[in-house]
Structure formats: structure tokens, C-alpha cells
Amino acid sequence: MPEEMNPFKIAQSQVDTVAEMLGLDAGLTEFLKNPQRELHVSFPVKMDDGTLKVFKGYRVQHNMARGPTKGGIRFHWDTDIDEVRALSMWMTWKCAVVGIPYGGAKGGVTCNPKEMSQNELEKLTRRFASEISIIMGPDTDIPAPDVYTTPQTMAWIMDTYSMNHGYTVPGVITGKPIPIGGSLGRNEATARGCVITIREACKKIGLELKGATVAVQGYGNAGSIAAYLIHDMGAKVVAVSDSQGGVLNWDGIDPHEAIKFKAETGTVVGFAGTETITNAELLELDVDILIPAALENVITSENAPRIKAKISGEAAN
């Protein structure tokens, strides 16, 4: 990965920029630029075909000055330690900005969940949870869902941690299913926060949300929910995409139907009444609102000058 695209280098550069503006002490700046604790693990999983595969995983606790660390766990084929370091740092800033008593953390496993069965994912999740449990706990570090992890993933983590302690510990994880102590509204929270921010930004610049055109890059939990929430508020969603590509219809796309289509086929590509476009093309569409809701580094110095949206409402990190 080129250094200018390395998320951890980007995160550290952001600290340098803000530290200079605030006149922070050089030692404190250096402290904030580096995680307090990292755990690297390699662990075996017996696959359905009987083979043994070794996966690499990470849990990074950036800063715990404000309290226990908090942050999601992602399963993705491109996940590496620098991505997890950067995401943990950004979680520290998020918690501090909204004034909650947590520090920032993040976790990840380098894997392709799209190519794994439910049985294999459960084995991987439980083994990873067992490996990172030595630094995890309701008073130390509390994971949550992220890219390609779900309430079911969180339930497996909570169950594994609880089994090892001999009693149920619901506070060890957030984003778990409602019946085992999850919070109502948690599944929609990321997308709802994004859409509320977009609504307020529209007021700020005098853009009428009703009828505004919207493109959503990424159609997982955050992207798909943001799409239907903003659609239900009167905006016109004209393009959506996932890891396999995107679709466009200037007359509008029904996000609810697109969700059903993806659940049946595994992708939005091929959705009725649309033309196929690339993720890169979606970002540069002449729309009022762009919602990047996949991974980081999709908007760069190379494509930023060609982005035409009046508002970029970022649902991704």
C-alpha cells in the first residue's frame, strides 16, 4: 500500500495537524499518535472440508485515559494491523467528541466471510474471541459489530467470553441481539446518525432534502439503512453499490426493494430497471448528496476534484 494511502499514517498526520493548531506538547502529541496496546494473534480453524487454515487477527487499544476502550471488530480480506491501528485512534476521537467515558479500540481478522460457511464463521469468531479475551472485558475493552460482522457474531463472542468466566457477561459486547441484552435501535444507529447529520447539513446550505438526489457507496448495514432512511425522508436514491459493483437509475431506486434483491442474490448488481456502474463512477455522479458507506480511502486527492456532490455524508470511517 502506498504510504499516502496507509490509514495509520493518515491518522497520525491528522494528529500532527491538530496538535500544531492547538499548540500541544510534543511529548503528548507523540503519545496520542501511537496505540497504548496491541494484540496480534494467529489461530487455526478447521474448515468444512477438513483442512486446517490459519487466520491472523488483531485487537488494538489506542487510548484508555477516558475509560474502557470501545470499538468494532471487522472481518475483511484487506484488514491489516495499520488499518486497525487507525480505526482504533479514530474511535478515541469519536468517544471524546461526543463526551462518553470510553477510549478507542478496534479489532479485525483477515478473512473473506463471503467465502465461508456459517459453521466456519462461528468457529473463527469463537477462537478469535478466546484469543483476545485476555485484554477484553466490560471494564477494559468492549467490542462491537463492524464490516461483515453482525449481531450473531457478537452473540458468539459474548457466549465464548461468558463460557470462559462461568457466568453470563452481557456487558462485554454491544450490538448483540435484543433477546440477550441488545439495545433497540442499535442496528440502525450508525446510519441514522449519518442521515440526521445530512439533514442538518442540508438546512445549513439551503438544500431541500425532499427530492434531493443521493448516491450510496456500500450497501451493507450502514449503507442500506442510510439509503432507506433518507429515501423515507423524501430524498431520491439514484445509485447504490456494493463490493461487486453499482447500479444507477436517475428516476430513482427503491432502497427497500434493493435490500431484498441483495439478500436473494448477494449483490445489488442486476437490480431491475438499473444500469451497471463501478464504485468509482458512483462516487463521481452529479448528485446532491453522496454517502460513502463502505471502507476508508475511497475519496483521495486523485478523485476528490471530480466529486460533484454538495454534501458528503460519511457513514464509513
> What are the low-pLDDT stretches, counting only 5+ consecutive residues below 50?
none
Beta-strand residue percentage: 15-25%
- Output the strand order for the largest sheet: 9-8-7-6-10-11
Shape: globular
Whole-number radius of gyration?
20 Å
So, the CATH homologous superfamily of the largest domain?
Leucine Dehydrogenase, chain A, domain 1
Structural class determined from secondary elements: alpha/beta
Task: Tell me what you see in this structure.
The protein has 317 residues and is of the alpha/beta class. The protein folds into three domains: 1-34, no CATH class; 36-184, Leucine Dehydrogenase, chain A, domain 1 (Rossmann fold); 188-312, Rossmann fold (3-Layer(aba) Sandwich). Helices cover 37% and strands 21% of the residues. The protein has nine helices and eleven strands. The chain has helices spanning 7-22, 26-32, 81-97, 118-132, 151-165, 186-205, 221-232, 255-265, 279-283; strands at residues 37-46, 52-63, 69-76, 103-110, 141-145, 213-217, 236-242, 245-248, 275-277, 289-292, 311-312. It has a six-stranded mixed beta sheet. Strand 1 (37-46) and strand 2 (52-63) form a beta hairpin. Helix 7 packs antiparallel against helix 8 (255-265). It starts with 6 loop residues before the first helix and ends in a 5-residue tail after the last strand.
In short, what is this structure?
This protein is of the alpha/beta class and 317 residues long. It has nine helices and eleven strands.
